[in-house]
Write a structure and sequence with these properties.
- The protein has 486 residues and is an alpha/beta fold.
- The chain has 2 domains: 2-224 and 413-481, Ribonuclease Z/Hydroxyacylglutathione hydrolase-like (Metallo-beta-lactamase, Chain A, 4-Layer Sandwich), CATH 3.60.15.10; 231-407, Rossmann fold.
- Helices cover 29% and strands 20% of the residues.
- It has helices at 38-41, 72-75, 78-83, 94-121, 135-141, 231-245, 258-271, 285-296, 303-308, 328-333, 355-362, 381-386, 417-424, 442-456; strands at 2-6, 18-22, 25-29, 50-51, 54-55, 64-66, 89-92, 145-147, 154-155, 160-166, 174-181, 186-191, 214-218, 248-252, 280-282, 322-324, 341-345, 369-372, 391-394, 397-400, 404-407, 434-438, 460-461, 468-470.
- A 7-stranded mixed beta sheet has the order 8-7-6-3-2-1-24.
- Strand 9 and strand 10 form a beta hairpin.
- Helix 4 packs antiparallel against helix 5 and helix 4 (94-121) runs antiparallel to helix 8 (285-296).
- It is globular.
- One zinc ion (ZN) is lined by residues 71, 73-74, 194, 439.
């Protein structure tokens, strides 16, 4: 008997954790942190795995973690998991391992900072406030990472094998194809992971999967269509205006993927002489390190990106206008500089990081522009700016917002519903026995479930947190055998 438990990213987008149990083997796909609402974040503090007050599973019971990609909502629980006793192997691509080494340390550092801040201000109920894990815990967890090749079949037991395919979502991201031998047949289970878009800058498009019995499919944008507009075209007028006014264009951007996409697009615009020569500063240590990772893994580039590497092997992020400011002093020196210039800095929603110093400096001048290029969650500074706030609080001071704030929504690392439907089209005609929707808010999940049913007539199910299902022909179970938790 094979069972599948949804331990996260069920009716929400964070905390990705799926558990496959078969003949005594326990394999977890992703080990993500819950983020966002407090009720979700509280789950990070629960013992793994407590159901109705009882511990039903311990981290040490898990044999393997198969990691689809390095985003914190997929990997961010690993240091805590190791701290609590996990001793198995974490299988992922080499790039995901390297990216996790950057992101998990960063995540730990932010949590330590937050705890320090809470203790200083005394706003935490816990005295002293503690981080979920520390930088040392993150470093300790790196020992358990075992990189494997994409497209290579890996045997986990005599009954279970899997392979990674390209998901085209971020650097190193994968789809998981898993084959499980049962008593009477072999089933194939596919975890889409986070599915990238077709024609994402730099990265290759997601691989198609032909055969699948049970599909666990992400549904982040199950109710949305991305604009087909070219983000480069939206940038041109803003950059021209910045040049003309000798002002500053500030772009808060996520350090992973978005910053590199921006550099790549800006370089392309410059190469085609669509924008004037203007200094571009990349001011985020994490973004700079991730850019270096991109440079050292050219095997993931698509044809267009590959074509840009010249005979001397020059980087695709290299241009005489682009400057990387790693040190604090270099960053501070930007404050005294006059425009025109573009500053790209993290965090993407202006919740922390060096972007705050630049906002403080540049928001009061009506000539400057702030451009939002990513999702701005409710309650963040980025969202307030976008909603037209007249002042924002930064480091305890109220800063007047006179600069013009705009956004472009053409950037996204996730497929929209039409791209998901297109990806599904490659599956054999009668489709999977069951599609389980994960990694989405309930509204997008309903929308996507409806569209899949309408277009393909397949059986779609939206599992809830901690729900367990059986993966065999008898599914769904008769009412008295409705799967409980584990
Ligand atoms: Zn992701
Ligand atoms: Zn995700």
């Amino acid at each position: 008997m094979t069972s599948l438990a949804f331990l996260g990213a069920a009716r929400t987008v964070t905390g990705s954790k799926f558990l496959i149990m078969h003949n005594g083997m326990k394999i977890m796909i992703d080990c993500g942190l819950f983020q966002g609402r407090k009720v979700l974040r509280k789950r990070n503090w629960d013992d793994f795995l407590k159901v109705n007050g009882d511990v039903v599973l311990k981290p040490e019971d898990i044999d393997y973690i198969i990691l689809t990609h390095a985003h914190i909502d997929h990997s961010g629980y690993i240091p805590r998991f190791v701290k609590q006793g996990f001793k198995g192997k974490i299988l992922c691509t080499q790039i995901t391992k390297e990216l996790c080494e950057l992101l998990l340390k960063d995540s730990a550092y932010l949590q330590e900072e937050e705890a320090r801040y809470a203790n200083k201000k005394g706003y935490s109920k816990h005295r002293p406030a503690l981080p979920l894990y520390r930088v040392a815990d993150a470093v300790e967890s790196f020992k358990y990472f075992k990189p494997v090749e994409r497209n290579e079949f890996i045997n986990l037991s005599p009954d279970i094998r899997f392979r990674f395919r390209n998901a085209g979502h971020i650097l190193g991201s994968c789809i998981v194809e898993m084959w499980i031998k049962q008593e009477r047949e072999e089933i194939k289970v596919v975890f889409s992971g986070d599915l990238g878009r077709m024609k994402t800058p730099i990265l290759k498009d997601p691989d198609y999967v032909r055969e699948v019995d049970y599909l666990i499919l992400e549904s982040t944008y199950g109710d949305r269509l991305h604009s087909a507009h070219d983000p480069g075209a939206d940038l041109i007028p803003l950059i021209k205006e910045t040049y003309k006014n000798r002002s500053v264009l500030l772009i808060p951007a996520f350090a992973v993927e978005r910053t590199q996409e921006l550099i790549y697009i800006l370089r392309g615009l410059r190469d085609k002489k669509l924008i004037p020569r203007i200094p571009i500063y990349i001011d985020s240590p994490l973004a700079i390190n991730v850019t270096k990772l991109f440079e050292s893994h050219r095997e993931v580039y698509d044809k267009e990106a590959r074509a840009l590497i010249d005979d001397k092997g020059k980087s695709i992020f290299n241009s005489s206008d682009i400057h990387f400011t790693s040190t604090c002093d270099e960053s501070k020196a930007l404050n005294g500089r006059r425009g025109p210039m573009i500053i790209i800095s993290a965090s993407g929603m202006a919740t922390g990081g060096r972007i705050l110093h630049h906002l403080k400096e540049r928001l009061p001048d009506y000539k400057n522009n702030v451009l939002m290029v990513g999702y701005q969650a409710a309650g963040t500074r980025g969202r307030s700016l976008l909603d037209g706030a007249k002042t924002v609080k930064i480091h305890g001071n109220y800063i007047p917002v006179r600069a013009k704030v705009t956004s472009i929504s053409t950037f996204s690392a996730h497929a929209d519903y039409s791209e998901i439907l297109k990806w599904l089209r490659s599956l054999r005609k009668n489709g999977p026995r069951k599609v389980f929707l994960a990694h989405g808010e309930i509204n997008s999940q309903f929308a996507l479930a409806y569209k899949i049913k309408e277009e393909y007539g397949w059986d779609v199910y939206i599992p809830d947190y901690l729900e367990t299902v059986l993966l065999d022909r008898e599914y769904p179970l008769p009412p008295e055998g409705r799967p409980g938790v584990l």
